[in-house]
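Reviewer 2 asked us to include a model.

Predict the structure of this chain.
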Amino acid sequence: MIITRLIGGLGNQMFQYAAGAALAARTGQALRLDLTSLRKYKLHQGYQFDQIFAGDFQTASKLDLFRVLGFGMRRGVRGSVTPDPRLPNPQTGPKIRQPSHNYWDGFSALSGKTYLAGYWQSPKYFQGAEAAIARAFEFREDLTGENAEIAAKMAACTSVSLHVRRGDYVKNANVNAFHGICDWPYYRAAMAHMRAALHAPQFFVFSDDLDAAKAEFGQGADITYVTGNTGAVSYRDMMLMARCKHHVIANSSFSWWGAWLALAHGAADDGQIVIAPKVWFAGSPEPMEDIYQPHWVRM
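Predicted model (structure tokens):
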């Protein structure tokens, strides 16, 4: 059995699931999702996979956790686990904490029952399993009302999703120090790139601070501000991002998946342009390299 710990917002949880699902498929094991840490996590919207996605998601029971973690279960659930698979517990198998923000080569050698504790933010962790991940992350509901109207507009034009992530990146000093924010010159340069590369691009702006975005970008004819998808239905912003042909993403796993799903679900084609910030974690001593797709433009 593979158990992967879910923590963080929706985009983070999707990376954690994808890594666990790919490992489970490669090793012929069942996958279970550990929600223990997430139940105490007060930021974002908690666990919503069953509401949002069409995949079959199985959560880990206490017995599942004990079968994999044994008497180290309490420590393992909190993520206090060894990163070295060469030192397995003979009763419970390896318990793996992600040792690097970038791809860890040891992942490909994992076998047997395993508990994954990390963020696993690289497509390399689910390379070869992309089709299965795309199917699991098909959206369960149809867009309605204003969202359906926006989706139709996206389909009819050269649509560009533009994500301005601020929120806790600005308000929380510790979060800001580590993540940093994409500054306005980044967005201006990205928009200029899109206008030069594409014919009549239409920008669809998603943000948790639309007032700041409107003050910066104004009310141009080629800009649409997406509103209304907040709180428990915030995921509908990702649904709309995934309908766009091109993307300007923030240093955010949420818009990362919006761009990835657009290509995986067919809204975008091989001509997709994705612009991403060249610095993903401002406060990390280790440059984040493996989160980017090869065809993405880094600014």
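The first helix runs from residue 10 to 27. The CA atoms of residues 145 and 221 lie 22 Å apart. We have added this to the supplementary material.
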